[in-house]
Structures are given as C-alpha cells and as structure tokens.
Amino acid sequence: MSTAVASPPVGTGAHADVGAGVDDTARLRRVFGAFATGVTVVTVGGASPRGMTANSFTSVSLDPALVLLCVGKDAVMHRVLAEADTFAVSVLGAEQEDVARHFADRSRPMGARQFDTVDWLPGASGAPLLTGAVAHFECAKWRAYDGGDHTVHMGRVLSLAELPDREPLVFHRGRFRRLADRTHGGAE
Fold first, then answer.
1. pTM score over 0.85
2. What positions does the domain Flavin reductase like occupy (predicted)?
C-alpha cells in the first residue's frame, strides 16, 4: 500500500507567490535568474563587426543542426543581425568573465575597435571567433520570430569547434560562476 502525499495548494507553503509578480520586471528577472545558463558572445563580421554577450542561447535540433539566441529589440546587435546572413557564437570559458563584461558594456566602441582588447580569429563567415572559448558555432540565419521585447533568431550550424578540456563560464542569479564538479560515488 502506498501513501500519496498531497501537494500544498497554490498560495501556501514554499511557493506561496506562484503566479504573482509577473508584471514586476525586476522580480521576473530575478526569478528567471534561478535558471543557470552558459555565457556566449554572439558576433557578426563584415565592414562593421559587432559582438554581444548573450546567455539566451541553446541548441534546438540535430537534423538539421539548429541553434537559437534571443536579442533585445533595443540592442545594436538586433539591427546588425537583421542585416546579416551569418553569425557566430563563442561559448565562453571560465576564465573569460572579463570578455563577457566587455561585450555586455553598451559603451564599448562600435565596429572593429570593440575587438581590440580581446584575442580572436576570423571565422569562415568573417565573424570573429573568440580565442579561449569552450566552443564555436558559425551559423547561417535560418528563421527569426517575434519574442515580445526580444527577437528569437535561429541559425543553421555551418561549422563548429570545441576545446573539451575547458570549463565553461556560467551565469546564475545575476553573477558569473564556475561549475563545481561534485562527483559522488555510489551505486548507479
């Protein structure tokens, strides 16, 4: 005989505020921050290259190989991506917090000068690939969708590379962090 444990009713217990506060953008940002993400820099090449730190990046499909990223409609990168045919994504390593902060700083120089303080290599698409990254993806634009105050950009992966021995940079609860390897022994 098993005993069922009832969930507490909505509005009581540890999650008393479920459903409340979705119009409070500061609170919404804080609660979204409970989900740990990797940190990337999205880049576009061409006559006026651009980079932008983004943690809204994920894989979508293996066949075809697709990724997505979300870019705020008020970001310079929003306009740049709208005009580009290709883009690249560098997944930052744990030692690259300064790179993440640089490309998140809205006061950084425009064009190629913003890449003067970081090490990079030109990708096949012409987009800068950041040296020291855990992985690189070069993508062709595939689709774009309205996402409220952001646009959801999907890219078809054209090429990829990885440095499997590098630890990724992680963003959680408004802070950059590192992974902690806490392997536990025991039966599986």
1. no
2. 32-178
- Decide: helix, strand or coil at residue 169: strand
Q: Point out the residues of the chain with pLDDT beneath 70.
A: 1-22, 28, 31-36, 180-188
170-188 burial string, b = 16+ CB within 10 Å, else e?
A: bbeeeebeeeeeeeeeeee
Structure tokens at 78: 């929003």
Right CATH number for 40-173 from 3.90.1150.10, 2.30.110.10, 3.40.50.720, 2.120.10.30? 2.30.110.10
Nearest-angstrom CA–CA distance, 79 and 88: 16
